[in-house]
Amino acid sequence: MTALESSIASIRIAAAAADRMKAHDIVAYDVSDALGICDGMLIASAPNERQVLAIAEEVEKDLFLNDGKRQPRSREGVQEAQWILLDYGDFIVHIMHDEARDFYHLERLWRDCPQIELPLEHPEEPQSTER
C-alpha cells in the first residue's frame, strides 16, 4: 500500500507553504504501510516560536485556499509554539522549534519509510536523516 496521490498533493502544498515561510529541514514520509491510520507525515523546523506559528498559519491558509477548503481536524501546541501538530486525517504536519526537533528526533520513527519527493522553491543541501 502507498500513500494516495491526493494526500501527496496536499503534503506538497503544505511543504511549499512552509518553505515560503523559511522553514528548514522540510521532509515528508509515506507512512501508509507503517501506520495504516494516515498516509503521510510532514516535518519542518524553525528557529523560534514566532516563526513556528507563522509557518503553521501559512500551511493552514494554503491548504484551505488551494486544497478544497481543507481544514485540520485538530491543532495542538499552538499556545506554546514549540511543536505544532496539524492533523488533516490522511496526513499530519509537524512544525517544530529546532530544539524540540533535535530532542524528539521524529525522523528516527519514519526512517524506514519512503520519503515523499518535495519540489521546493528553496531546496536545502541534502542532509543525513540521522540528525
TrEMBL record:
<dbReference type="GO" id="GO:0042256">
    <property type="term" value="P:cytosolic ribosome assembly"/>
</dbReference>
<keyword id="KW-0678">Repressor</keyword>
<keyword id="KW-0963">Cytoplasm</keyword>
<dbReference type="InterPro" id="IPR004394">
    <property type="entry name" value="Iojap/RsfS/C7orf30"/>
</dbReference>
<dbReference type="Pfam" id="PF02410">
    <property type="entry name" value="RsfS"/>
</dbReference>
<dbReference type="InterPro" id="IPR043519">
    <property type="entry name" value="NT_sf"/>
</dbReference>
<comment type="subunit">
    <text>Interacts with ribosomal protein uL14 (rplN).</text>
</comment>
<dbReference type="GO" id="GO:0043023">
    <property type="term" value="F:ribosomal large subunit binding"/>
</dbReference>
<keyword id="KW-0810">Translation regulation</keyword>
<dbReference type="GO" id="GO:0017148">
    <property type="term" value="P:negative regulation of translation"/>
</dbReference>
<dbReference type="GO" id="GO:0090071">
    <property type="term" value="P:negative regulation of ribosome biogenesis"/>
</dbReference>
<comment type="function">
    <text>Functions as a ribosomal silencing factor. Interacts with ribosomal protein uL14 (rplN), blocking formation of intersubunit bridge B8. Prevents association of the 30S and 50S ribosomal subunits and the formation of functional ribosomes, thus repressing translation.</text>
</comment>
<protein>
    <recommendedName>
        <fullName>Ribosomal silencing factor RsfS</fullName>
    </recommendedName>
</protein>
<dbReference type="GO" id="GO:0005737">
    <property type="term" value="C:cytoplasm"/>
</dbReference>
<comment type="similarity">
    <text>Belongs to the Iojap/RsfS family.</text>
</comment>
